[in-house]
Amino acid sequence: MRALIQRIAHASVSVDGKMIGRSGPGLLILICAMQGDSELQADKMADKISKLRIFRDEAGKMNRSVLDTGGSALVISQFTLAADTSRGNRPGFSEAAAPEVADRLYQYFAKSLGTRGVAVQTGEFGADMKVELLNDGPVTLWMEI
Fold it and tell me: Is 40 left (phi over 0), alpha (psi -120 to 50) or beta?
């Protein structure tokens, strides 16, 4: 699995002009299931992200997790994280999991993150989503498991 994680002041996602998910202070997580991924990778990713110390402590150092801060997460499916840009000018996405597998793992990841104590809202798999966010820091991390 691949994820792009952003520390946020707030974020929201809309489909057809209707807001379907949002998060206050916490994380925006763009997640992509890759070929060969399973629930094992989703659980490892959820565990790592829930404990990732990227929030400021009293001394201003990144030493607290989303769990420590009581923050929430907005999780968005993002198959374009699988982009292969090594040839030509049009990205290839053949390394992304098939849609039915990707949707299942996306939903599983969001639930797995929730079982670890993070309040989670999601986008809509496969939809044309509009995501708005206020990046805090900015702090943006790339993860692959």
Answer: alpha
Structural contact between residues 69 and 26, judged by C-beta atoms closer than 8 angstroms = yes
Q: Is 95 helix (H, G, I), strand (E, B) or coil?
A: coil
Does 144 fall in a domain?
A: no
Number of Cβ within 10 Å of residue 111's Cβ equals 14
CA 2 from chain centre, in angstroms, equals 9
pLDDT tens for the chain, residues 1 to 145: 999 999 999 999 999 999 999 999 999 999 999 999 999 999 999 999 999 999 999 999 999 999 999 999 999 999 999 999 999 999 999 999 999 999 999 999 999 999 999 999 999 999 999 999 999 999 999 999 9
- Check which CATH number belongs to the domain holding 57 and give it: 3.50.80.10
- State the pTM of this model: 0.96
> Which of 101, 111, 85, 108 is CA-nearest to residue 35?
101
Catalytic amino acids?
Answer: 78-80
Q: Into how many domains does the chain fold? A: 1
Inter-residue contact 100 to 92 (CB < 8 Å): no
